[in-house]
Design a protein that fits this description.
The protein is an alpha/beta fold and 382 residues long. Helix content is 41%, strand content 18%.
Length: 382
């Protein structure tokens, strides 16, 4: 069977959506299917990613002012004929897509009567601000024009056009796949559409550390939406606890860490397994209602329990392998939870539960969920 992945980003980024799609593509190829990828890139080229044939093509974007909404409109306008021409050369049995090129991909696939599966992993198709600090199911009133900053209001018609095209693409897809039950519920609330749930594929070998010298509390991506102000309060109140911070830190943010001698800032980290080797607890005080929360599963694969916000899809990623905080802006709740995990008995139970929960998110299990969803909706046997 021939399967095409039509994507704006397959392997030139390190986000969860890209890594999950790479893992799925490889799992499908290992089953003997012919897998090709057609992705946006800076130049026209063809190369092999293991058993997968990757083809790239550039798309025009403004060189002066980068604007995601305008670029998305421009990209899809040019991607449609490029994809149409690419499909002329090979007959595909299934097309898989996600994110910014989904509506042009669905349009071409529908016109050619090829089944198309769309992964719903991001908030961009529902909210121009991607619910930076609002809970999508309970706090969004769907009146975009009232909460946009004034600079975005000036291009509101382009924002509405993109949202409309995303909706049209979702409605025309043969199969919709959400990366969590939470995202499935968001899709139903906003567009009254149903989706199958396929959890992200986590390739354990990327994150499992054979040696552990764990004594640190880890915070990943020091950004406001990830809970930076909450973390700073926690670190200031727990001077006796050593913390690690992994992720790029700008000059303005770095100033906020002054005086916190118990915090070690690692900067951007390529191999997270080295960080997990030093981690005893993962801290996730996210203000943003994350669609899933891949980092919690990565940590759990090493038997590391998490203390995390009870928002978005995070509870699904944490499971019973940690402690969830509802009142996220009360730093005392986080401190109390960290103190609880200082108890060896409590920690051992959470660590064991975390490792057991992580087994639900292997690449093989994600593939099985995908196969069942495709067979149910399309009737194809992968």
């Amino acid at each position: 069977m021939r399967i095409l992945f039509s994507l704006d980003n397959y392997d030139h980024a390190t986000g969860g959506a890209e890594m999950s799609m790479q893992a799925l593509a490889h799992q499908i190829a290992l089953r003997g299917h012919e897998v090709r990828v057609f992705q946006r890139d800076r130049s026209v080229r063809t190369y092999d990613d293991g058993p997968i044939h990757v083809h790239t093509h550039p798309l025009p974007a403004s060189h002066l002012i980068r604007d995601q909404d305008l670029d998305t409109i421009r990209w899809n306008r040019h991607w449609e004929p490029l994809l149409d021409h690419f499909i002329n050369e090979t007959r595909f049995d299934l097309i898989v897509t996600q994110n910014r090129l989904l509506f042009s991909t669905v349009k071409v696939a529908t016109r050619r009567h090829i089944p198309v599966a769309v992964f719903v992993r991001a908030f961009s198709m529902f909210c121009p601000l991607q619910f930076r600090s609002r809970e999508a199911l309970t706090e969004c009133d769907r009146r975009c024009e009232t909460c946009l900053p004034w600079r975005m209001r000036l291009k509101y018609r382009f924002i509405r056009r993109n949202l409309g095209q995303y909706e049209a693409g979702l409605r025309s897809a043969t199969l919709l796949i959400a990366n969590s039950i939470y995202m499935r519920d968001v899709l139903h609330r906003f567009y009254n559409l149903e989706a199958e749930v396929v959890y992200p594929a986590i390739e354990w070998k990327r994150y499992e550390s054979p040696t552990r010298r764990a004594d640190r509390v880890l915070f990943v991506k020091p950004q406001y939406v990830k809970g930076l102000p909450i973390f700073l309060q926690i670190a200031a109140q727990m001077r006796d606890t050593p913390f690690l911070v992994a992720g790029k830190i700008g000059r303005h943010t770095r100033r906020k860490f002054r005086g916190l001698d118990n915090v070690e800032c690692l900067g951007w980290v390529k191999h997270m397994k080295d960080v997990y080797a030093r981690t005893r607890v993962l801290l996730g005080p996210s203000i943003w209602p994350e669609p899933f929360g891949r980092v919690f599963v990565e940590a759990a694969a090493n038997g590391i329990p998490s203390i995390a916000s009870a928002r978005g899809g995070i509870p699904e990623a944490v499971g019973k392998g940690g402690i969830l905080i509802k009142d996220i802006f009360d730093s005392s709740r986080w401190v109390e939870a960290l103190r609880r995990l200082e108890n060896p008995t409590v920690y051992a139970i959470c660590a064991e539960n975390a490792y057991a929960h992580a087994k639900k998110f292997t690449a093989a299990e994600s593939l099985n969920q995908f196969i069942r969803s495709v067979h149910k909706a399309i009737g194809l046997e992968l």
